[in-house]
Design goal:
heterodimer; A: Rossmann fold; B: 558 residues; 22 helices; 9 strands
Chain lengths: 125, 558
């Protein structure tokens, strides 16, 4: 779970991190104010299977695709990336086109978020 | 308040009534398995004088404007003057926000309130690599005094008060506001307003941080001291519970942590050698108004009574104004839904009603579209009209504290006060709020409460219309505000022009001076003012603080 950019709204990210932990996943939470570079570095270092990006301050159109770009540059684009938070409706297809596998918007139950991971994310290698 | 015999009779009668109650629900049971507030406090089926049997009217409820202030901070409350209608606004460039300010004033708001973008909130300029993609997206971009001058152009700041929601760089933005006013010939003795400037709740909840707690406290104490000497009509701090609640706390946690933060600020100022009555009357507060109607009203009343007791008994304040808990309220952003957004108008209305019945001094009402984007003009106007209708059509402002004496409300007020004081005691035993924060105590209490609440919604124990009940596939369309793409580029160019046309040698000198002052213990507001007047940028000033005080990193607990 990662918080890219300057956005400090972490209520959702931390709840999801707990839900993932309770579901038995191994969770690394980067904490706030991470640059895309720091996120990708941490993801590769921790050898994660998935990155969850949380954004509620409107800078997602720059930050999310930048994470994908850096993963590609590092040869780690088999890491699944999904996002959650506040997104204008018309931005969601743009993010998916950039390589974000799924976007979770307000009101999504925790069970759905967890189930999605179980169905869509495999252990790498 | 009631005679012993009277109470005994009511107790007996209530037992009889409970039998009647049970009979009437015998076939179908109660409507819900459990009745509880939004904060999960259990609620009984009926409240009577028995719930207030040890209550003393004069000592516990009293009169408005008199200790313990349960019924209101001023003697005349809304009979004398309505609360300030202060709509939080900020978007794009200073020019864009200035336009929105003018609109809101024309539509009848009575106080200004400024929302800044993430780079400004975090002490970065628009051209910082950390700011990429963030310019103007959640508030207005301010890089230098030039932006501040544009932001308030044409607005009568000698007559209207301004609030600025800004925390780590609050001293800098305040200095910009003061410098802007003085350039317009308006004295710092005359300007009125508030800077939020409450770092403790940042570490706990809102999470805009820059420097570690100790140096943050130093800077805040500097501003409080500066305010008492130089800007008498200004509230140098808005001790906030809003964000603590938005992060997922219960109502009692919001109440307790906010007042505990307040205690820490008072202690810091006293440690500096200030007299409590010199600054206490200018401490202001900021609460959330969430969905549970009575819980919120009780919370506001308990807050007033608690703070009065704290200031009188703990801090021995003598000036009656030092005992006042004056507060601004914002309706709960976290209670709004992305689904069926027009329902949010109703939620905001009820939350605003609670704030008014709770005796707020100032109120912001959220717009229906704020779960989706920054508010459009239309949505912000409806939110403002909500306040105006409450003020002038509905009659609740006709008499002071109309719900005072409600058995339910007074019982809730008492219970919440008791529980909040227990939290404060716990925090005291940890060594105060700064120590509690270093142990992640309030942060984890909030995370637990937030997680529990989310589970209750997912399991439909708590209802959210449009999300887990009455869900519709079709949505009425809502127009969303867009921030233009060229804004970031334009702002960078604009700030570069300011940098090119200022006296850069002077800027360098002021920043150097600031660095020296930061390493010593002089009041930093004065060197900040010098830097700001020379058109140093916000980040140039904040970088000095980062250099001297260090950078605080989120511990990332969940």
């Amino acid at each position: 779970m990662a918080k890219p950019g300057l956005d400090g709204h972490d209520r959702g990210a931390r709840i999801i991190a707990r839900a993932y932990r309770d579901a038995g996943f191994e969770v690394v939470y980067t904490g706030l104010h991470q640059t895309p570079e720091e996120i990708v570095q941490a993801a590769i270092q921790e050898d994660v299977d998935m990155i969850g990006l949380s954004s509620l301050a409107g800078a997602h159109l720059y930050l999310f695709p930048r994470v994908i770009e850096l993963l590609e540059q590092s040869g780690a684009n088999d890491i699944v990336v999904c996002g959650g938070g506040i997104f204008p409706e018309e931005d969601i297809p743009k993010l998916k086109k950039a390589g974000i596998k799924e976007i979770f918007t307000p009101g999504t139950p925790l069970s759905e978020v967890v189930a999605w991971v179980e169905e869509n994310v495999e252990a790498r290698r | 308040m009631f005679t012993k015999k009277g109470i005994e009779r009511i107790e007996t009668d209530k037992k009889k009534w409970q039998k009647l109650f049970q009979e009437s629900i015998a076939k179908t049971g109660e409507r819900l398995a459990r009745f509880s507030t939004v904060s999960d406090r259990p609620v009984e089926n009926l409240y009577t004088p028995v719930d207030l049997k040890d209550h003393d009217y004069s000592g516990d409820i009293g009169f408005p404007g008199q200790y313990p202030f349960t019924r209101g901070v001023q003697p005349s409350m809304y009979r004398g003057r309505l609360w300030t209608m202060r709509m939080f606004a900020g978007l794009g460039s200073a020019r864009d926000t200035n336009r929105r300010f003018h609109l809101l004033v024309e539509e009848g708001e009575t106080g200004l309130s400024t929302a800044f973008d993430m780079p400004t909130l975090m002490g970065y300029d628009t051209d910082s690599p950390k700011a990429k993609g963030e310019c103007g997206r959640c508030g207005v971009a301010i890089d230098t005094l030039k932006d501040m001058e544009v932001l308030f152009e044409g607005l009568p700041i000698e007559k209207i008060t301004t609030s600025m929601t800004i925390n780590p760089p609050a001293a800098v933005l305040w200095a910009m506001y003061i410098a802007m006013a003085e350039k317009r010939g308006i004295s710092r003795k005359v300007i009125g307003g508030t800077i939020q400037n409450d770092m403790l709740k940042e570490f706990i909840a809102q999470k805009t941080f820059m420097c570690p707690p100790e140096s943050s406290m130093r800077l805040i104490t500097d501003t409080i001291e500066f305010g008492t000497k130089e800007v008498p009509r200004w509230n140098p701090i808005s001790i906030s519970g809003y964000h603590i609640r938005e992060a997922g706390s219960t109502a009692v946690q919001e109440l307790a942590f906010t007042l505990a933060d307040g205690i820490a600020y008072v202690e810091a100022a006293l440690k500096r050698g200030m007299d409590v009555d010199s600054f206490a009357h200018r401490l202001s507060f900021f609460f959330n108004s969430h969905l549970d109607f009575f819980e919120e009203i009780a919370k506001f009343r308990a807050a007033r009574r608690m703070w009065a007791k704290i200031m009188k008994e703990r801090f021995k304040a003598k000036d009656p104004r030092s005992l006042w808990l004056r507060f601004h309220t914002q309706t709960a952003g976290c209670s709004l839904t992305a689904q069926q957004p027009y329902n949010n108008i109703i939620r905001t209305t009820l939350e605003a009603l609670a704030a008014v019945l709770g005796g707020t001094q100032s109120l912001h009402t959220n717009s229906l579209d704020e779960v989706l984007a920054l508010p459009t003009e239309e949505a912000a106007t409806i939110a403002l009209r909500t306040q105006q209708i409450i003020a002038e059509e509905v009659g609740i402002a006709n008499t002071i504290d109309p719900l005072g004496g409600s058995y339910f409300l007074e019982r809730l007020t008492n219970d919440m006060e008791e529980e909040a004081f227990a939290y404060i005691q716990k925090i005291d035993e940890m060594g105060g709020m700064v120590a509690a924060i270093e142990r992640n105590y309030p942060q984890l209490e909030i995370a637990d409460a937030a997680y529990q609440y989310q589970k209750q919604i997912d399991e439909t124990e708590k209802t959210v219309i449009g999300v887990n009940k009455y869900v519709t596939g079709e949505e009425l369309p809502v127009e969303i505000l867009q921030i233009e793409e060229e804004l970031e580029r334009n702002q960078i160019e604009w700030t570069q022009e300011v940098k090119n046309s200022r006296n850069n040698k002077k800027v360098k000198t002021t920043l150097q001076r600031l660095g020296e002052a930061a390493q010593g213990d002089e009041n930093l507001m004065y060197p900040i003012l010098d830097a700001v007047r020379a058109y140093a940028t916000e980040q140039e000033i904040c970088d000095v603080f980062r250099d001297v005080f260090g950078i605080y990193r989120d511990p990332g607990v969940y």
